[in-house]
């Protein structure tokens, strides 16, 4: 089935009484559009494209960018990672390899400023003397087509979950980055940066003012109103009870902070205190129990960091916050939504949803709240993940509506974590809510009550995905874009600027813009020369051999060799991150030496054993595994060689492209001898 035929039913307008959870419904005329973002030329793609994020250009709301944990179509040696771009309000999408991070993004969020510049924060795994660390890259691009890599405006070490928000402040665009700053010199790590476009270095402001156990939780979320009230929400971890290396139980406060001057005061985000201790930060909920699990727990997904905050853009005192905990009687992971009408001083719970993740809140100009989430429905024979968008202007009373966007079979082969995502993003754009989610891409119209458009080859009758070359591929996790009309609010009308119409805003447009508002663009799916890439890797290798893995063990301390002696590397401050590599060591014996090794020599290779998708391109070695191994010696800062405590050389983690089947040995030898 062609993409052209699929687009014919791209929007669905219904007089609907949706499936409801816990409230009654009045009919509303709504329009909903759901589109699988993967373009036709990537129909072969079967990766787990989880944790999508969305940006909409406020100056031209037909221009959108979606990121996800998607690999560069060029493969494992790629020096850039992709995003998806639409110039027709989400009807069609192309891929652009615009992120200056090798192969695939992990945590990345982004937002357009008022001038049409895309601002982004992305994590890059940086090799270190102790293995690696997650570093924040502050990225920016003025290219409407994103044809070139985004520029790097700044870099900072040891950051988790950067969350980017932009807003215009008296004709000046401000960029906010909420983050878990693991490089903090204290245990408090919840931080916000405010960037005004200047050349000043990125400087985080710690917003936690109470004692924490080791650190704050990963999620720090930011929301800004047009009157200058800036909010941030975070987890105040007070006690961490470890179960094992990937799991624990956390006693946490849910904290809301506020700044009344765009977050730019001498003590940023200190204008809201809690009456219990007069310290900055309203304790929305105290001592809640949260199951932190960095392994498949709820429908294949990890849990522990669901958090969102949203503010009414026209009324900075009207604030909403959502988080998930395990405080229900049966300890189900449950999302709670609370509302404050007085700038966070008092709050009231207005909604809860059990077995749910990825809460995202947004408020439209007419005061309607949008609430996006995914819910796991357990069943022995038909477990499903549901994606919901609820809209309300009466705190989820009788006038609310619940739109079931997708209900799909829950379980596919797990390629890593997150399975669907640690967070999503919902935006109010004029009279529409727009958002993204990831889910099973099986082409079954029964799974998408409002219909769905596939750009990739898909047959909704036979429920089969094509590979674009006459064959088929199995289902996988794809990012989906959606838009839904905002319900009317009988208590608040739209202002004159809330037209909800997509298209050019009147600012100067590039020459290649067509009369319909679309850019002349095509996907960047570069041609790959596998033999040439393999030759380059072989030339750079220190050791090439046919070998077998004899032993897998936990990684020990790392030493550097200098001046004939060994120096132990200092251990870093212990932190908890979903990106923890879980370093292991594989002892591999050379069965057939090719370069830099002798027969029966044993080498020690460090590798990440984590399920986190940051490490998806690294093999997880198993005892007895054999193959052709292309290895480099591990080096620290300044190029110093690294070793174990007995002086045994340590080899750096190879990528999947560096571990070949044994039947490729003759090709390897031929290329080495050339």
Descriptive account of the structure:
The structure is a single chain. The protein is mostly beta strands and 674 residues long. The chain folds into 2 domains: 3-485, Methylamine Dehydrogenase, Chain H (7 Propeller); 530-673, OB fold (Dihydrolipoamide Acetyltransferase, E2P) (Beta Barrel). 4% of the residues lie in helices and 44% in strands. Strands 1, 2, 28, 29, 30 and 34 form a 6-stranded mixed sheet that branches. A 6-stranded mixed sheet has the order 42-39-38-35-40-43, covered by helices on one side.
SSE blueprint:
Elements: H1 3-6, E1 12-16, E2 28-36, E3 53-56, E4 64-67, E5 81-86, E6 94-99, E7 108-112, E8 118-128, E9 131-141, E10 151-156, E11 159-169, E12 172-181, E13 190-195, E14 205-206, E15 220-224, E16 230-244, E17 247-259, E18 282-298, E19 301-303, E20 307-312, E21 315-325, E22 334-340, E23 348-354, E24 356-363, E25 369-377, E26 384-392, E27 401-409, E28 425-429, E29 432-440, E30 453-454, E31 458-459, E32 464-466, E33 472-473, E34 477-485, H2 530-540, E35 543-554, E36 559-562, E37 565-568, E38 583-595, E39 602-608, E40 626-631, E41 642-643, E42 650-651, E43 659-660, H3 665-673
Parallel strand pairs: 2-30, 39-42
Antiparallel strand pairs: 1-2, 2-34, 3-4, 4-5, 5-6, 7-8, 8-9, 9-10, 11-12, 12-13, 13-14, 15-16, 16-17, 17-18, 18-19, 20-21, 21-22, 22-23, 24-25, 25-26, 26-27, 28-29, 29-34, 31-32, 32-33, 35-38, 35-40, 36-37, 36-41, 38-39, 40-43
- Count of extended strands: 43
Number of helices: 3
Quaternary state of the chains: single chain
What is the CATH C level class of the largest domain, in words? Mainly Beta
Helix percentage range: under 10%
The fraction of residues assigned to DSSP E strands is 35-45%
Stretches with pLDDT under 50, minimum 5 residues: 1-11, 13-27, 499-520
**Main β-sheet description:** 6 strands, mixed
Globular, elongated, flat, extended or rod-shaped: what is the shape? globular
The domain tally reads: 2
**What is the averaged pLDDT score?**
89
- How far the N terminus sits from the C terminus, by CA atoms, comes to 46 Å
CATH fold-level name of the largest domain: Methylamine Dehydrogenase, Chain H
| SS content category | mainly beta
């Amino acid at each position: 089935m062609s993409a052209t035929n699929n687009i014919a039913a791209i929007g669905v307008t219904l007089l609907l009484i949706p499936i409801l959870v816990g409230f009654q419904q009045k009919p509303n005329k709504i329009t909903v559009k759901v589109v699988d973002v993967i373009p036709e030329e990537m129909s072969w793609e079967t990766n787990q494209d989880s944790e999508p994020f969305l940006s909409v250009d406020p100056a031209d709301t037909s221009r959108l960018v979606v990121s996800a944990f998607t690999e560069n179509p060029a493969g494992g040696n790629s020096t850039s990672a992709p995003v998806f771009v639409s110039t027709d309000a989400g009807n069609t999408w192309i891929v652009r390899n615009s992120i200056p991070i090798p192969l695939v993004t992990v945590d990345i969020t982004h937002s357009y400023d008022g001038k049409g510049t895309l601002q982004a924060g992305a994590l890059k795994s940086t090799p270190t003397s102790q293995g690696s660390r997650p570093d924040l890259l502050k990225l920016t691009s003025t290219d409407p087509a994103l044809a070139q890599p985004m520029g790097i405006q700044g870099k900072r070490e040891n950051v988790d979950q950067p969350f980017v928000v932009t807003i215009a402040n008296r004709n000046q665009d401000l960029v906010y980055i909420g983050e878990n700053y693991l490089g903090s010199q204290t245990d408090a790590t919840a931080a916000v940066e405010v960037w005004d476009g200047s050349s000043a270095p990125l400087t985080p402001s710690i917003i936690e003012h109470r004692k924490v156990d080791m650190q704050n939780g990963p999620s720090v979320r930011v929301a800004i109103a047009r009157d200058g009230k800036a909010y941030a929400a975070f987890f105040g971890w007070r006690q961490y009870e470890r179960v094992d290396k990937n799991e624990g139980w956390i006693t946490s406060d849910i904290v809301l902070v506020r700044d009344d001057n765009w977050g730019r005061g001498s003590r940023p985000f200190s204008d809201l205190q809690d009456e219990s201790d007069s310290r900055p930060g309203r304790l929305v909920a105290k001592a809640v129990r949260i199951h932190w699990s960095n392994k498949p727990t709820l429908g294949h997904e990890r849990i522990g960091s669901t958090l969102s905050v949203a503010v009414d853009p026209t009324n900075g005192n009207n604030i909403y916050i959502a988080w998930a905990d395990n405080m229900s009687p049966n300890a189900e992971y449950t999302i709670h939504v609370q509302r404050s009408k007085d700038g966070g001083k008092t709050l009231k719970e207005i909604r809860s949803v059990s077995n749910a993740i990825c809460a995202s809140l947004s408020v439209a100009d007419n005061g309607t709240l949008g609430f996006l989430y995914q819910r796991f429905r357990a069943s022995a024979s038909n477990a499903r993940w549901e994606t919901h968008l609820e809209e309300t202007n009466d705190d989820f009373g009788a006038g609310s509506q619940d739109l079931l966007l997708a209900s799909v079979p829950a379980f596919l082969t797990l390629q890593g974590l997150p399975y669907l995502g640690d967070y999503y993003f919902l935006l109010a754009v004029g009279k529409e809510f727009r958002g993204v989610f990831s889910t099973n891409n099986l082409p079954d119209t029964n799974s998408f009550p409002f219909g769905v458009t596939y750009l990739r080859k898909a047959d909704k009758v036979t429920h089969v995905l094509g590979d674009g070359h006459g064959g088929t591929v199995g289902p996988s996790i794809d990012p989906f874009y959606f838009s839904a009309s905002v319900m009317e609010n009988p208590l608040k009308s739209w202002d004159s600027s809330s037209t909800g119409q997509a298209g050019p805003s009147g600012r100067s447009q590039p020459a290649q813009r067509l009369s319909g508002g679309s850019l002349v663009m095509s996907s960047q799916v570069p041609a790959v020369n596998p033999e040439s890439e393999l030759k380059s890797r072989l030339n750079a290798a220190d050791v090439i051999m046919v070998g077998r893995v004899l032993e897998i063990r936990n990684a020990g301390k790392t030493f550097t060799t200098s001046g004939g002696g060994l120096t132990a590397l200092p251990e870093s401050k212990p932190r908890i991150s979903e990106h923890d590599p879980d370093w292991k060591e594989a002892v591999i014996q050379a069965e057939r030496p090719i370069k830099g090794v002798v027969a029966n020599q044993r080498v020690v290779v460090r590798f990440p054993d984590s399920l986190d998708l940051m490490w998806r391109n690294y093999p997880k070695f198993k005892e007895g595994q054999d193959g052709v191994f292309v290895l480099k010696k591990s080096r620290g800062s300044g190029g110093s060689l690294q070793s174990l405590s007995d002086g045994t050389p340590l080899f750096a983690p190879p990528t999947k492209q560096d571990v070949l089947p044994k039947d490729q040995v003759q090709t390897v030898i031929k290329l080495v001898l050339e």
